[in-house]
Design goal:
The protein is of the alpha/beta class and about 180 residues long. About 50% of the residues lie in helices and about 15% in strands. Strand 3, helix 4 and strand 4 form a beta-alpha-beta unit. The protein starts with a helix and ends in a 5-residue tail after the last helix.
Length: about 180
């Protein structure tokens, strides 16, 4: 497959998945972020990279955002929000951390392709991004397993960033001031 055709195929697949994301779920996640004292993010593998990218954007917006497992991550507690990203909703480490977060009193938001997964069922709110994952759930894709979910999840969360940005009245200058300068 030539590059242009492959790029068009990827774009079409991602556009199709994003069109299927429930705007009400996205708005509920936006409001949960705005209402949380602190936001924690977790995920494994490439889903973990999506979670980390989202944590960075939230930090740029002035949200107290922490990546689970980092050495400076504080304890999670009531009033906090744990966002767990797992395409399958069955990743063992992510499921374990989600359970621990809930046991500590935090609300749990699942970003997953499978609302009926153990992560989806245990979540207080969810953002279903129905891209194909390794378990076979989600929309068909010609890409590697999980790629479509990860791509669409990153873009769906970037759209939520815009909602949080607008609600907080943030500007690009404010975000730039919070951007890393030890580069």
């Amino acid at each position: 497959m030539d590059f242009r055709k492959a790029a068009d195929t990827v774009q079409d697949e991602v556009r199709s998945v994003l069109a299927a994301v429930d705007a009400g779920e996205a708005e509920a996640l936006t409001q949960a972020i705005l209402g949380a004292d602190r936001v924690f993010l977790t995920g494994e593998g490439r889903s973990g990279l999506v979670a980390k990218a989202f944590a960075m954007r939230l930090m740029h917006l002035g949200v107290c955002a922490n990546v689970v497992g980092e050495t400076t991550t504080p304890s999670i507690e009531k009033g906090n929000l744990l966002i767990a990203v797992s395409g399958s909703g069955e990743t063992p480490v992510t499921a374990h951390l989600a359970k621990a977060g809930k046991a500590s009193g935090a609300r749990l938001a699942a970003v997953t392709a499978d609302a009926g997964s153990s992560l989806g069922r245990s979540a207080d709110l969810k953002l279903v991004v129905p891209g194909r994952v390794k378990t076979g759930k989600g929309r068909q894709s010609c890409q590697m397993p999980g790629s479509l979910f990860e791509q669409a999840a990153l873009l769906a969360l970037e759209a939520i960033v815009l909602g949080v940005c607008a609600a907080r009245g943030e500007t690009h200058d404010g975000m730039r001031r919070r951007h890393a300068n030890l580069e």
